[in-house]
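[Automated response] Your request has been received and processed.

Submitted sequence:
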Amino acid sequence: MDEGDGGNYTWQDQLHDATLIKKSYDNLCGRGYEQYCSNVDLYKKHRPKLVTGIFWQYSGQAGYMLEVGVTYQTSYVVDWKTGTVYKVVTVGSFVYGGSPTGIEGDVSFGIQNYHGIPNDVEGITDFLNGPAQDTAISGNLDVGLLAGVEQNVSVNLKETGGAIYNPGCGYSYTTEQSVEFGGNAIPNGIDFNLQTGRSKSFVVGIWHLW
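Generated structure:
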């Protein structure tokens, strides 16, 4: 500490030293040493960031009561903190249980909300790429041509398996709400179903809005 002329440690000297200490702590906090972060810094660092998207999806399935199917989805995901848009392609397969459909093909349109992505992460491609475990429930009015709604939850997985967890932000997962339209070989009037499966996503394009 600089005690100034004549050994007097003035308030100006104290302010100068406090500023140097804060800059040092801010630098260490930014480098990942969280013991040097203030409570405000930790809140900003760990609270989940706002990431949303829109998507359309094609799916097809075949069977009776217990059926199998495949999906292909294109999403446009926005990281609102950085102003970045990601184009994501997702392919997957699923097992379906519910009202029988025979052979069915659907197209869906919806919105996405991404959960558990840390606020201090600048590039989120690692969170958008990779495998996921998907579970969806849907209800449709089905008289040959069906129309309905679907709720889907996809939990992001590590390549080695197991859900991705980020301290302070929780598990990394995506929720989707969509409307779907399609054709059904076995009309059911009102159709409810549950499906589960695995998918894998790939970032195929990136644009910066600001």
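Summary generated for your ticket: The chain has two domains: 5-37, 47-208. The chain has three helices and ten strands.
If you did not submit this request, please reply to this message.
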